[in-house]
Specification:
mainly alpha; Fumarate Reductase Iron-sulfur Protein, Chain B, domain 2
Length: 364
Amino acid sequence: MNIKPDIELINFIKKDSGSSLKSCFQCGACSVVCELSPDNKPFPRKEMIWASWGLKEKLLGDPDIWLCHQCGDCSTHCPRGVKPGDVFSSLRHMTYLHYAKPKFFATLLSNPKYLPVVLGIPVAFILLVIFMAGTLRIPEGNVNFSKFFPHLYLNISFTFLLFLVIISMIWSMKKFWKDLSRQIPVPGKKNSLIKSFIQAVSEVFSHRKFRTCSSQSYRFFAHFIVFWGFIFLLVLTIFAIISTIFFHYPFSFWNPVKILGNIAGIMLFAGCSILIYKRIVDKNSAGHSNYFDWVFLISFYILTISGVATEIARFQNSISAYYIYFFHLVFVFLTIIYAPYTKFGHFIYRTVAIIFSKYIGRDT
């Protein structure tokens, strides 16, 4: 068999993960200690070979990269300090870059030199929409965000962008599923696709696989409250959009929807705080953190803080509320509209990979 190593991929993984791939001597300790690795062709040992050889095609269609939850157990027990968990994180980063459409967005979100452009796009977009609405000024009187950014323009513009994002993700997922099927052909005897979907969604929503982590046991709680905090806020935001059309809006501070939203915000803030703290003070346990990781975490963190600050400023009837609100919308854009091109995308790719693995009977 002729092997054509992708040198660019090898260099990318080494730089992105901070791992020395050539130090791995294939002892198999990483696969032995991993509680999530299947008995048949376990990971991450085989992926470490493919990564060191630059076998990009095999890695792109490998669902095991996504069955890994980066517990850190493999890296903790690696006798050579290669840190397979960090290598897997880089392989997932490679996946975003490969499947992203349009690809230049993924490039922008992966390189710190493009940060001004990344921030400039949502700023320019929001200013343009406000200008088109004819409200490019700070309104007088009591704080009323609809006079600054009319709800109709806000909902239509962001919904349109979200629609484009969803179309892009569907295209990427179809290509991803095709590559998964190429790597591991679907057997004649397979499980129900609907049943596989339900099982995968249940697993993702419960985060039960995170409970197997021993080296980073905090990750279950932190990821769980961040995940559900975001889900709650997303549902409440949709309800708020509907309320601007059919009900009284904005809500009072003691409105049940507002109270639930604040609880969800606290969940997000607490979870992000734990993850950021661990990455700063416990680097060996948390693993290697690169720019791609930090952009995602900090965006979520600022989104949460700016949302709370916007609420406080509005209830205080401070003119600063408009400036904070604008700032908050920029990070709504960064978090939601850029989702397929940031680490946020792992929620989608991992779900698809788990569905496929259950469908073919690899992860049951």
